[in-house]
Amino acid sequence: MALRYQEFIGRQGQIFTGADKLLQELTHRGYQIYAATNGVTYIQKNRLLHSPIQSYFKEVFISEQMGTQKPATDFYEKIAEQIAGFQFDQALMIGDSLTADIQGGNNAGMDTVWYNPTHMINNSKAVPTYTIHSYQELLDLL
Q1: Is the peptide bond before 117 cis (omega within 30 degrees of 0)?
Q2: Taking every pair of C-alpha atoms in the chain, what is the biggest distance, in angstroms?
Q3: Cα–Cα distance, 95 to 104 (Å, whole number)
Q4: Cis omega before residue 52 (within 30°)?
Q5: How many structural domains does the chain have?
């Protein structure tokens, strides 16, 4: 039963509306795009495989494979070791989770962008460098 559930979840390759166009524009502008996600490798790889955005990512880093997860600093350090020329002060962590993405990026010394399309109130201790409510705001920021 658990295996069937994992297979079902792994086929759910849904993305935020407009994410494909955003990634296309970022790629056109010359940005190198990586995905960093917490989760089970099988599920996350299959989700990406069933989505229209897979080709935009140079690499996908999954917590299960990394042996650690966001927001731990070593998650980001292990990623940095795998990307030639990676510099934390030249990277930008973009995410919708304050506790995983933003706090993790902060812990690693990276600038962070909190994608907050629903205008949620930040009641956490994580302070993003930037907050955006739309993909266009990200493009304008960059």
Answers
A1: no
A2: 46
A3: 10
A4: no
A5: 1
Domain housing 111: 2-141
Task: List 61's β-bridge partners, or say none.
Answer: 36
The Cα 111–Cα 92 span in angstroms is: 5
Q: What is the DSSP letter of 30?
A: T
pLDDT tier at 49, thresholds 50, 70, 90: confident
* pLDDT per position as a tens digit, 64-112: 998 999 999 999 999 999 999 999 999 999 999 999 999 999 999 999 9
Name the strand (E) or helix (H) holding 9. helix 2-10
Residue 78, token pair as written in the block: 């292990």
* Predicted TM-score of the model (pTM): 0.84
Tokens standing for residue 70? 């966001």
Residue 42 identity (one-letter amino acid): Y
22: domain CATH number? 3.40.50.1000
What is the Cα–Cα distance from 69 to 41, expressed in whole angstroms? Answer: 12
